[in-house]
Design a protein that fits this description.
single chain, alpha/beta, eight-stranded mixed sheet, 18 strands, 30% helix, binds flavin-adenine dinucleotide, binds pyrrole-2-carboxylate
Length: 417
């Protein structure tokens, strides 16, 4: 804990009902012009601003958020972090992120509660086993920790599981990434926001971007609900609304915006001490520090911007969870919610220049971008600052959908979509 938040200030603030609690970031009026504007104040946008300021010394910049920081998918996700992706390009990008996660609380001087409790992906049939083995081998060739567990090792690692899987989903094994785990989603947004603000970045909330100023094929600013803001460079990081913003800038993206749901139970004593995911049953589970079971589903298969989904998807997810964890059959669910995930045809992100000079885009993380937050912000900042991709995001260009060099990560995405 920093001196700013010393024990004395905590006690003083507790007795003054937090009246004098120091603000974690300023609420500045937007300037008329910035060197760069980031559209979207989720984790990725805030991380981008942080690394632009820290590593590229670009401090005359702003993050423009239409709602509140982290109010999009950052604050709605189930916080699973891992790097066990199949192809080299993705594995290296997600592993870059995982390494940054490992030092993030220290880097930001803000506890993001990163907990490396291990992530298991279950196999329920021979095909699952072969696919997991292939991915584990690929991970190990990239120096990423990944191991294959027998059913008994699965049971030892997560005693709450019933290996019979209700007869429908017998557990034949699992992959395990021990360095994977969970983090506190809000804290990630707040930590990056506080860090960026301290270096002079303006964070402007309640300010939707409604259009782009483009002159001679080059972006010169953004039109917002609070007026025109000029900018030499603009980065769009607006998960759930990437296609909406691209349309405003005059180009199209190969994305579908789909609802993705999650729900939490009443809190109980610690009983699931790792993350368990299963592609086949379209469900995954972990336990929050408050004790709630955090359960997620696959996507709802229709395009929607409602930030909610269908009841039958929750029912199927819970049925599967009860088959794998019969001891949870009497648990009550507290609440559910949805986010809008922008899914690419190859289940990999786009971190790229766009057809508009000076306009960059970071999108298409689909169901799995939270884990990438630090790495994504880091390489996107490089792309914006230098005008060229970082070696780790060079393969994630928009033109791969023209060249055909797709990076198919449907299996590793591990959430049905
Ligand atoms: P966001 O946090 O959505 O930020 C984008 C911001 O852009 C929003 O705040 C939005 O308000 C803003 N914006 C949009 N339009 C405009 C505009 N016109 N002007 C200004 N601002 C605008 N990933 C994992 O790795 N692990 C998981 O366990 C996981 N679980 C998930 C569970 C659910 C239920 C959901 C919905 C997603 C999950 N994800 C997970 C995916 C993950 O949440 C996202 O990929 C990631 O959070 C995207 O971060 P972001 O910062 O790009 O987006
Ligand atoms: O990408 O690991 C993931 C994930 C888990 C839940 C949703 N996405």
């Amino acid at each position: 804990m920093s001196q700013r938040y010393s024990l004395f200030s905590l006690i003083r603030n507790a007795f003054s009902y937090h009246e004098n609690w120091q603000k974690a970031w300023r609420q500045p009026e937007p300037k008329a012009e910035y060197d760069a504007v980031i559209v979207g104040g989720g984790g990725h946008g805030l991380a981008t601003a942080y690394y632009l300021a820290k590593e590229h010394k670009m401090t005359n910049i702003a993050v423009i958020e239409r709602g509140w920081l982290g109010g999009g998918n950052t604050g709605r996700n189930t916080t699973i972090v891992r790097s066990n992706y199949l192809w080299d390009q993705s594995a290296l990008l997600y592993e870059h992120a995982l390494k940054l996660w490992e030092g993030l609380s220290q880097e930001l001087n803000y506890n993001v509660m990163f907990s490396q409790r291990g992530v298991m992906n279950l196999a329920h049939n021979q095909h699952d086993l072969r696919e997991l083995s292939r991915r584990i081998n690929a991970n190990r060739l990239n120096g990423i920790d990944s191991e294959l567990l027998s059913p008994q090792q699965v049971k030892d690692f997560c005693p709450a599981i019933d290996l019979r899987g209700g007869g429908r989903y017998p557990v034949l094994g699992a992959s395990l990434q021990r360095r994977g785990g969970t983090a506190r989603h809000d804290a990630v947004a707040w930590g990056y926001a506080r860090g960026a603000d301290a270096m002079g970045v303006d964070i402007i909330q309640n300010c939707p971007v409604e259009g782009f100023e483009i002159e001679g094929g080059r972006v010169t600013g953004v039109r917002t609900a609070r007026g025109l803001i000029k900018a030499k460079k603009v980065g769009i990081v607006a998960a759930g609304h990437s296609t909406v913003l691209a349309t405003l800038a005059g180009f199209r993206l190969p994305l579908m915006s789909l609802p993705l749901q999650a729900l939490v139970s009443e809190p109980v004593k610690p009983c699931v001490t790792c993350v368990v995911m299963s592609n086949a049953v379209h469900a995954y589970i972990s336990q929050s520090d408050k004790g709630e079971l955090v359960i997620g589903a696959g996507v709802d298969h229709y395009i929607g911007y409602g930030q909610r989904g269908s009841i039958h998807v929750q029912e199927e997810t819970l049925a599967a969870i009860c088959e794998l964890f019969p001891l949870f059959r009497r648990m009550r669910m507290l609440r559910n919610w949805g986010g809008i995930v922008d899914v690419c045809p190859d289940a990999s992100p786009i971190i790229s220049k766009t057809p508009v000079e000076g306009l960059f885009i970071n999108c298409g993380w689909g169901t799995g971008g939270f884990k990438a937050t630090p790495g994504s912000g880091n390489v996107f900042a490089h792309t914006i600052a230098t005008g060229e991709p970082h070696p780790l995001n060079a393969a994630f260009k928009l033109d791969r959908f023209v060249s055909g060099f797709l990076i198919d990560e449907h299996g590793a995405a591990a959430v049905a979509h």
